[in-house]
Amino acid sequence: MKTQQFRAAANTCHKTQTKNANANNAATTKHINSKMSSSTPQQQALDMNKIIDRIYLGCEEAACAPLEVLQGEFGITHIVTCGFGLLQPHLKSSKIQYHKINAIDLPVYNILQHMDSCVQFIDKALTENETNCVLIHCQRGISRSAAITVGYLMKSKGMSFAEAYYGTAKKKRPCVKVNSAFQEQLELYEKMKCTLKGELPAHKQY
Questions:
Q1: In this structure, are residues 192 and 206 in contact, taking their beta carbons and an 8 Å threshold?
Q2: Nearest in space to 100 (alpha carbons), one of 15, 90, 4
Q3: Strand partners, 97
Q4: Are 51 and 172 in contact (CB under 8 A)?
Q5: pTM metric for this prediction
Q6: What dihedral do alpha carbons 142, 99, 5, 156 form, nearest 10°?
Q7: Cα–Cα distances in Å, from 151 out to 88, 117, 184?
Q8: What angle do CA 137, 143, 146 make, to 5 degrees?
C-alpha cells in the first residue's frame, strides 16, 4: 500500500466526513451540556477506559467533559483527537494540551502515517511530569483512536499486535473494534519493527 493512494482517498472523503461531523456537533454539544448540567462531576460515568497506567481510551463525549471531571477524576492533561470535525472544547485552556490527526475510519486510509507524531506526543506528555495522563479518542473510541492506542503500545511498550490489541486494548475496553484494514496495517507495523522506513520486506510492502 502506498501513502499517496491513501492520501488521495482521504482527500476524496474529506468533505463528506467533515460535513457529517459538523452536522453532528450541535447535537453532541447539546447532549453533553444537558448531561453535565444535570449531575455532579462525581456522578459522571464517562465513556472512557484506562488501558494502561496514565493512558485512557474513549469517545468524543468523554473528551468534552468539564475540566473538573477530566482532571479531578482522571488526571487528564493531554488529549489525542483522532478525526475530522471532532469537538475540542478545552483547546483554549492552558490545562489541556491537544494533538489532533485528521484520520478517517475507512479501509483505504493509512492510519500508520500518524503513528510517529502520536507516539512522540504521548511519550513527551508522560515523561514531562509523572502525574500527566493522556486521553486518546475519536468519535466513539472504537476504531481510529483504538488503532493509535494499539500502535502506541506496540512501539513504546514493546507489545506484539496481539498483546496490544486483544490482550490489552480490547480487554480493557471491550467495545474496541479496529476496522480490518487498520488491523492489517498494525500487523504490518509489527513486521516493520514499528518503524515506517527501512529495508525489511514489510517496508517494501508498505
A1: yes
A2: 90
A3: 78
A4: yes
A5: 0.82
A6: -70
A7: 23, 11, 12
A8: 55
Which of 64-101 are b and which e, b meaning 16 or more Cβ less than 10 Å from the residue's Cβ? Answer: bbbeebbbeebebbbbbbbbbbbbeebeeeeebbebbb
Distance from the Cα of residue 124 to its chain's centroid: 16
Q: What are phi and psi of 103, to 5 degrees?
A: -80, 145
Of 6 and 127, the one with more pLDDT: 127
Q: Which residues are catalytic?
A: 138
Task: Provide the residue type at 31 as one letter.
Answer: H
The one-letter amino acid at 176: V
Residues 81-118 have pLDDT tens digits of 999 999 999 999 999 999 999 999 999 999 999 999 99
- pLDDT tens readout for residues 122-140: 999 999 999 999 999 999 9
Q: Would you state the pLDDT for residue 11?
A: 52
